[in-house]
Specification:
Layout: E1 2-3, E2 7-16, E3 18-19, E4 26-27, E5 34-35, E6 37-38, E7 45-46, E8 50-66, E9 70-86, E10 89-94, E11 103-110, E12 113-125, H1 130-146, E13 154-165, E14 169-181, E15 183-184
Antiparallel strand pairs: 1-15, 2-4, 2-8, 3-5, 6-7, 8-14, 9-10, 9-12, 11-12, 13-14
Length: 190
């Protein structure tokens, strides 16, 4: 079995075969981590390799957070269009009346009935402190990372750096240290 990504090995569980890596070693994507050999050195025999190699992997994410000025937020006002589509023609059951200057538009389609929701947005002054904005940005980046990870992955540490930006904002850069299984279980052709 080979590693599917770079990482620092933290735990190794070998069910079948022999581990090639040890705790604390740094492995690269494509390195062999569990080989399909069992038995003593004098009498080895082949087995299908199986196991779990947990490693600390690194993900870097960043975003620009606005710390002063105004920001667009939803006001809570909502309006909808509801229509039925027949052969490319739209027959409206309900038409949106409110004319929002700024809005979010979300379309929901269920079979032949389509609903378009409009959520009004207005500018509000930013009322949070710089520390609260950075904390919220780190949480948002963490949530977006969790969407890309498998279930067994666990964030063990965060390294947060910030840099002032000239446009009323701060760049929040976070390096997430994630412990996860790095074994690639897909067959490899040689």
């Amino acid at each position: 079995l080979v590693a599917r990504m770079d990482g620092e090995v933290s735990r190794v569980y070998t069910f079948s075969g022999r581990s090639v890596v040890h705790v604390g070693e740094y492995v690269h994507a494509g390195d062999i981590i569990i080989e399909g050999i069992n038995g003593k050195e004098e009498e080895p025999y082949e087995v299908p390799p199986d196991g779990v190699v947990m490693a600390n992997t690194f993900y870097e994410k960043s975003m620009l957070a606005q710390v002063s000025g105004n920001e667009l937020k939803r006001t809570g006002e909502k309006d909808s269009d509801i229509y039925i589509s027949f052969f490319g023609k739209k027959i409206y059951l309900k038409k949106a009346i409110k004319g929002f200057t700024e809005y979010d538009k979300i379309e929901e389609s269920k079979n032949i009935i389509t609903r378009i929701n409009y959520y009004e947005k207005k500018e509000f002054p930013i009322e949070l402190s710089k520390e609260e904005i950075i904390s919220n940005s780190v949480k948002a980046l963490e949530e977006s990372l969790y969407n890309n990870l498998t279930r067994e992955a666990k964030i063990v540490d965060r390294i947060v750096t910030t840099k002032e930006d000239s446009s009323q904002g701060v760049v929040v850069n976070v390096v997430f240290i994630v412990e996860q299984n790095i074994v690639n279980n897909e067959p490899i052709d040689y």
